[in-house]
Amino acid sequence: MLDNEIKNEILRRRTFAIISHPDAGKTTLTEKLIYHGGVIREAGEVRGKEGVKAARSDWMALEQQRGISITSSVLQFDYQGLRVNLLDTPGHKDFSEDTYRTLMAADSAVMLIDVAKGVEDRTKKLYEVCRYRKMPIFTFVNKCDREGKAPLELIDEIETTLQMNCYPITWPLGLGGLFHGIYHRLKKQIILIHSEKQDLSESWPLIIPVDSLDSPVWAEHLHREVIHQAKEEIALVDGTLGELSHEKFLKGELSPVHFASAKQNFAVDTFLDFFTEFAPPPLARSCREGVVEPLDDNFSGFVFKIQANMDPKHRDRVAFIRICSGKFERGMKVQHSRHEKEVRLAFSNQFVAQDRATVDVAYAGDIVGVNDTGNFQIGDSIYTNKMKIFDDIPKFPPELFAKLTVTDAMKRKKLQKGIDQLSEEGMIQLFIDPIVGAQDPIIGVVGELQFEVLQYRLKDEYGLDVRIQRMPFSVARWPREADGKAVQKPLNGNFQIFRDLNDQPVILLEKEWDLNWVKKENPTVEFATSILKVQKK
Fold first, then answer.
1. pLDDT at 71
2. Which of 345, 350, 348, 303 is nearest to 322 (CA)?
3. Percent of residues, the chain, with pLDDT higher than 90
4. Which residues pair with 342 in a beta bridge?
5. Mean pLDDT in residue range 257-278
6. What are the DSSP calls for 40-63, one per residue?
7. What letter does residue 410 receive in the DSSP assignment?
């Protein structure tokens, strides 16, 4: 039985990820959240320009130069007695696979929406992942200090596009140049970012209790046009919606909505206060053996991310583990599900960007990074005592393919080591021609930017100048029998079969038309779009 101290530590964990379309302000929101959590004293505005402070949540130099997040990171802070784990994810669509894996490690999500652009394509795709997992979702409408869509129009767009009910917790008082602040529907408060009659002796934002929409307080601080529109909209929302259902929220059927401006650091703390009240503690996880409860006596977890060279000087490799049950202790011995052997978790860390701190203990819901010498792959399960093999994390099929060449033939071995390590991260996929061998693999990626990042990292971390030779393929599929096992017999048709890093057969084709022809020639074979990690039974 877990003692009360361990139970309390587990129950005070809150682990979430932020999903958004690029440029919705995700990195800015992330930095403001950890600012309120006391992790940093100053949040840098996120711009890829000389002289402007780089984002503290971005650790790679290229991220800081471009002003985008292209890797996921783990940020931990305390707030109102809770231990919050924020999983920062890439915003760019070319790194959707990394975001998907990160969402597998989260218990809830914050959907960030630009008030002017509404629900964008990238947001829709990420929301589908959350809905598939029935994750609780908070909605954070950002950039209210800029001109945007009318709040009612935006709410209707979210509900219609995503087929999800919304429940506004706060309501904007004007937008753009007329943005005065928000009205907190649950607390009956006006929270002002500024006022036409601003008293410099008062602290801002100013919080004003109001007992009703007819209170004279409204007219004391707000523009007449703003008052009329806001009251009309709030009255309509109040008259339409009933009580906020925590149960529906936890089932992913209803999303609480907050309006704010992350850049102005306005109403971020209001959202965070609500988050700590409503976000779920660590949730139960399904595995091959059944369901794992976070308060299970035994330790268990799974690897959802691997990152090489976070410290290039030491050529380190870190495996990020989501703890699913029990208590983690540095140096503990655990069972490795795939290797069927015991491994020792000797060096463990938690991170803010590349800043790391040794962690001696952690609990279900936490994320720890352990130094890895090559034992772990993404999706590996670890446990003590009773076996637990968690659900597999599939990979996305790549759509762009290339071979890499290096001008100095003496560096070919170094190139092979570099791409092997980066493929183990899940950043790229390798396909091997059985005739040519592993020394000359084909690189597969989901998006164009991944090639740019690959070149950059090979140069920055391995000192290699490489050229990319594009291949004509655009389709990768894994042939399987009806029972889901890899096809071992020859297939009908004149095409080559490659092998992936798990030595599973895979076909690479130029066009969807070619795939349709292959399917016609092999009607009993399934051509899967994802790789199933091979586990020993």
1. 45
2. 303
3. 49
4. 335
5. 96
6. -S-PPP---STTSPPPTT--SHHH
7. G
pLDDT in tens, 159-208: 999 989 999 999 999 999 899 999 999 999 999 986 555 554 456 688 99
CB 67 within 8 A of CB 58: no
Question: What b/e string do you get for 206-235 counting C-beta neighbours within 10 Å, with b at 16 or more?
Answer: bebebeeeeeeebeebbbeebbebbbebbe
For residue 194, with 0-12 CB atoms within 10 Å meaning exposed, 13-18 middle and 19 or more buried, which class applies?
middle
19 three-state secondary structure: strand
Looking at residue 411, what DSSP letter applies? G
69, 308, 263, 91: which is closest to 56 by C-alpha? 69
Neighbours of 472 (CB within 10 A): 9
Burial of residue 93 (number of CB atoms within 10 Å: 0-12, 13-18, 19+): middle
Residue in the block written with tokens 């060279």: 309
SS3 of 453-493: HHHHHHHHHHCCCEEEEECCCCEEEEEECCCCCECCCCCCC
CB 356 within 8 A of CB 369: yes
User: Order of strands across the sheet with 189-192?
Assistant: 170-173, 181-184, 189-192, 206-209
Q: Are 313 and 337 in contact (CB under 8 A)?
A: no
423: CB partners within 8 A, 6+ apart: 429, 430, 501
- Token pair for 258: 């907050």
The SS3 of residue 91 is coil
Query: pLDDT per residue over 122-140, tens digit each?
Result: 788 778 878 878 899 999 9
Yes or no: say if 145 and 263 are a contact pair by the CB < 8 Å rule: yes
CA 520 – CA 157 distance, rounded (Å): 41
Top mean-pLDDT range of 21-25, 84-88, 392-396: 84-88
Binning the chain into helix, strand and coil, the percentages to the nearest 5 are 25, 30, 45
Which of these, 154, 143, 109, lies nearest to 14 by C-alpha position?
A: 109
Provide the 8-state DSSP code for 338: T
Q: Which helix (H) or strand (E) holds 16?
A: strand 13-20
CA distances in angstroms from 130 to 43, 84, 108, 123, listed in the order given: 28, 19, 8, 11
Mean confidence (pLDDT) of the chain? 85
Mean pLDDT is lowest, of 183-192, 348-357, 393-402, 464-473, for 348-357
CA distance 470 to 213: 63
Which residue type is seen at 11? L
Counting runs of H as helices and runs of E as strands, what totals does the chain give? 13, 31
**Distance, CA of 397 to CA of 379 (rounded, Å):** 17
User: Which residues on adjacent β-strands are paired with residue 114?
Assistant: 118, 142
Q: What pLDDT, in 10s, does the model give residues 245-254?
A: 999 999 999 9
